[in-house]
Amino acid sequence: MDRVSVWDHNVDATCGLCNASPESRNHLFFGCSYSSQLWEYLSYGLLRSSYSNDWSSIMPLLCQDDKGRKWSFCIRYAFQACLYAIWRERNKIKHGERATPVTILKKLVAKSIRNKLSLIENYRRKGMEGVLIFWFEARS
């Protein structure tokens, strides 16, 4: 949104999810209270002491390969699902709709991740055996 407000000064640059700060990449992902709640819900169990909601701190974590294939896939997929959901909610607001309450969005995104992991297990991908159990254990 930073660039759009430079082009058109009449554009409201306030984050539509929290209505508290100017919308920027770092705010939208995951400085905003709405998006931060979703990210924490999905990622804290996997990241534990490495947890951060700061974009520049998250990027190196996503590039780590030393924690195993299941961990790498789960954190990267959770990140992707979270970004997609937040961007979709942001666009709903920009087009006059209401955002899904974050408590409901958490459940919807977690369910979509579980569905993907279940599908991966059914295909018996090498190194991904027990990925669904891994996901549940990491988040408990």
Number of domains: 1
* Largest sheet features: none
The overall average pLDDT, rounded, is 92
Radius of gyration: 16 Å
The helix fraction, in percent, is: 55-70%
Run of helices and strands = HHHHHHH
Strand content: under 5%
Please work out how many helical segments DSSP would assign: 7
Topology, number of strands: 0
Termini separation comes to 36 Å
Computed structural class: mainly alpha
Give start-end ranges of low-pLDDT stretches: none
- Overall form: globular
Task: Please provide a brief summary of the model.
By secondary structure, this protein is mainly alpha-helical. The protein has helices at 2-7, 25-31, 33-47, 55-63, 69-94, 102-122, 131-139.
Describe this structure in words.
The N and C termini lie far apart (36 Å). The chain has one domain. The protein has 140 residues and is mainly α. Helix content is 66%, strand content 0%.
What characteristics describe this protein?
single chain, about 140 residues, mainly alpha, about 0% strand, globular
SSE blueprint:
Layout (H helix, E strand, L loop, with lengths): L1 H6 L17 H7 L1 H15 L7 H9 L5 H26 L7 H21 L8 H9 L1
Helix pairs in contact: 2-3, 3-5, 3-6, 3-7, 5-6
